[in-house]
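User: Could you go from structure to sequence for me? I need the amino acid at each position, not a summary. Structure tokens:
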């Protein structure tokens, strides 16, 4: 009996030992399987990321390739297009702009201030209404903004990610994404009457995008500049576009034909611009062009003669933006020197300077953008924060501290009822009275 019990005990121990060995083997196999599964998941995630990157690159390449035929044709037409007088705009273009300038001047004399214009008290109550992040987090930073000049329901932004975004304010959602540039989009502009928009980029190109059934597609691609394009501005006729670049040139285009009617190389004029243009803006009447330079000066150009008829000096660092008041009397300019300067165009003098050294007087904040509202009664400034001023007294009305990084651009809505700003913190914000 004892031998039988002992034999059963030995069998039980052997069986237990065998099961433990089998369990260890299964555990090792399971561990190996889990490791293989984890490795496979990482490989799949990497392949998906590479696929998405390849698709994005293919989309950009396709957008550029689609323009090759148009670009070749445009370049050929540009070479054949000659102005009636060498180095000047065609007479019919000048006549058209002069007629528009006269009409606008006459209307301006008769126009009254809108009854619905926001009061300083309303602006003082401005607070954040909406915030959204339309651009990629991989290349953070929203660099510029433009509000549709007629409908006011579309906001366009350009970013470090090389794309431009159209945002439907009423619907509260992105309505279109424009991908094609290979570097940061520095300026954006929407045409007031046609379904076309404009973008300027550090990749030295300017694109005209036209609305199609499937979204916006590149209609024309301008590659006339050799350096980053930092300024685009639309003439009052809405038929002509000027681009300005760090290559020290500005070009005048006919939008309908995509022809470059003239190119001014400011490095070769009497008072040369060596370090390039950083911004450009048409005077409201359309016969004068203002450009800011990386050399801290502002150049005023007569479009009839294409001559630099005035230069404003006073900033001590690069000019970042400029804005003409609606009545055409004042010009505001901002600079990396931490100041905004106000110029009287009738007397060609700087009559006021606004400084932004609240936190550190010895190292003032860079000012990135200035903007008059359409009525010319208010001025907004983008720096570390957003500041609003009354033009009548040049006094500060409101400071908005909602962004967490440098504010890059600012733009007014209709009747100064709301304001939009962009920032290096990736956010676009809309403010209104509460």
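Assistant: Here is the amino acid at each position, in order:
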């Amino acid at each position: 009996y004892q031998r039988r019990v002992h034999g059963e005990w030995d069998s039980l121990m052997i069986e237990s030992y065998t099961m433990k060995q089998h369990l260890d083997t299964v555990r090792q196999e399971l561990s190996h399987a889990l490791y293989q599964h984890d490795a496979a998941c990482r490989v799949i995630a990497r392949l998906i990321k590479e696929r998405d990157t390849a698709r994005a690159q293919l989309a950009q390449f396709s957008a550029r390739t689609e323009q090759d035929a148009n670009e070749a044709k445009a370049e050929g037409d540009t070479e054949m297009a000659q102005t009636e007088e060498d180095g000047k705009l065609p007479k019919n273009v000048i006549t058209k702009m002069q007629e528009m300038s006269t009409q606008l001047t006459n209307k301006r004399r008769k126009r009254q201030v809108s009854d619905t214009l926001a009061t300083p008290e309303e602006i003082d109550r401005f607070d954040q209404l909406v915030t959204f992040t339309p651009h990629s987090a991989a290349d953070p930073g929203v660099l510029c903004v433009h509000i549709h000049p007629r409908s006011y329901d579309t906001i366009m932004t350009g970013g470090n990610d090389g794309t431009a975004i159209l945002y439907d304010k009423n619907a509260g959602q992105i309505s279109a994404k424009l991908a094609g540039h290979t570097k940061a989009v520095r300026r954006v502009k929407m045409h007031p009457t046609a379904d076309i928009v404009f973008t300027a980029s550090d990749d030295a190109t300017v694109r005209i995008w036209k609305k199609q059934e499937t979204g916006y597609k590149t209609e024309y691609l301008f590659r006339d500049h050799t350096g980053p394009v930092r300024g685009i501005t639309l003439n009052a006729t809405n038929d002509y576009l000027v681009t300005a670049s760090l290559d020290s040139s500005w070009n005048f285009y006919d939008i309908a034909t995509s022809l470059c009617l003239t190119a001014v190389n400011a490095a070769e004029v009497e008072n040369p611009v060596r370090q390039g243009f950083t911004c450009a803006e048409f005077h409201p009447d359309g016969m004068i062009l203002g450009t800011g330079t990386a050399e801290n000066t502002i150049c005023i150009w007569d479009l009839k003669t294409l001559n630099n008829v005035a230069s404003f000096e006073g900033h001590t660092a690069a000019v970042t933006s400029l804005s003409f008041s609606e009545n055409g009397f004042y010009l505001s300019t901002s600079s990396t020197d931490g100041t905004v300067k106000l110029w009287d165009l009738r007397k060609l003098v700087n009559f006021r300077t606004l400084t932004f050294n609240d936190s550190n007087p010895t190292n003032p904040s860079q000012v990135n953008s200035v903007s008059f509202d359409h009525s010319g009664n208010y001025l907004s400034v983008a720096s570390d924060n957003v500041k609003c001023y009354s033009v009548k007294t040049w006094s500060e009305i409101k400071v908005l501290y909602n962004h967490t990084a440098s504010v890059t651009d600012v733009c007014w809505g209709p009747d100064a009822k709301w304001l939009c700003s962009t920032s290096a913190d990736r956010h676009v914000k809309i403010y209104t009275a509460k």
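One structural detail worth keeping in mind: The two ends are 97 Å apart (CA to CA).
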